[in-house]
Specification:
The protein contains 10 helices and 6 strands; from the N terminus they run ααααααββαββαββαα. The protein is an alpha+beta fold. It is elongated and about 65 Å long. The N and C termini lie far apart (83 Å).
């Protein structure tokens, strides 16, 4: 048997590493086996040469093994668990019907906003019912201003009766998602009606997404509000709270998906895809 004690240089380091168990046993056996086989084929070559070569092979193999070990961190595609919603079960433990009604109203409000405010030809008619928050209350523009259609391209809001509401009306017009650029002149607001251009369609589509995001946030707020009520109820077991939480989240996700479907249909309409 080849004497490995005569090895020098890196060969000695490899042998030491193998002896002290700093590599897997199977790697050590493979290295020693290859060393013996090569010495039989060419006895004239010093063992240190073989050990140097084996050292390089061992390092590569060692790193390869480590890389395979790191693959444990790879994510698995198990998908989300499906949660069944038991309405009777939910109603037993909190005000489920109230939460559901509020989520339904949020989706319905989104749909109404799209019909009134984001139609390609509704810029003139939509202003009548455009909501305006003023002094803590919500109004529509026709409650605060006299709407005059000067011509098909321009609308004038006469704010003589409520001049103090002009800033709130301007803010509402700019945030309406209708791509409006109102101009104030004393107690009057002039609103040029945008042309139905590609840019206008894209702006309306962005407005549709912005309204969807607001709806989504309101639904998630309702979800989190009711989950908090459950968690604050010390009379409920932890496992029960988790079950209720999962079903509430599933219900909220259901309404968010419905709102998203409505948004995508509206965007398709605005872009002329349908």
């Amino acid at each position: 048997m080849l004497k490995i004690t005569t090895a020098v240089g890196r060969g000695t380091q490899v042998v030491s590493a193998l002896r002290h168990g700093r590599s897997p046993c199977n790697i050590a056996l493979q290295c020693l086996g290859r060393l013996h086989a090569k010495s039989q084929m060419d006895p004239r070559r010093p063992s240190s040469t073989f050990l140097d070569n084996i050292g390089s092979d061992w390092c590569c193999t060692h790193h390869l093994v480590r890389c395979y070990a790191k693959n444990k961190d790879k994510k698995s595609n198990k998908g989300q668990k499906k949660v069944s919603i038991d309405e009777n079960f939910l109603a037993e433990h909190f005000k489920y019907n109230t939460m559901k009604t509020e989520m339904e109203k949020a989706v319905a409000a989104l749909k109404n906003n799209y019909i009134k405010n984001l139609s390609l030809r509704s810029s003139t008619g939509a202003l009548d019912s455009l909501p305006v928050t003023f002094e803590g209350d919500e109004y529509v523009i026709q409650d605060l201003a006299q709407i005059v259609r000067k011509n098909p391209k321009t609308i004038i809001l006469n704010m003589t009766s409520f001049p103090q509401a002009i800033p709130a009306v301007l803010e509402s017009l700019k945030a309406s998602g209708m791509n409006l650029n109102p101009q104030q002149d004393k107690t009057s607001i002039f609103i040029p009606i945008p042309k139905v251009t590609k840019e206008h369609r894209e702006n309306l589509s962005k407005g549709a997404k912005a309204l969807f995001v607001k709806t989504k946030d309101s639904i998630k707020e309702l979800q989190n509000k009711n989950i908090k009520v459950l968690k604050d109820n010390d009379a409920l077991a932890t496992d029960l709270v988790h079950t209720l939480q999962d079903q509430i989240t599933a219900l909220a996700d259901k309404y968010v998906l419905e709102a998203q479907r409505i948004m995508e249909e509206k965007q398709s309409e605005l872009k002329g895809d349908s």
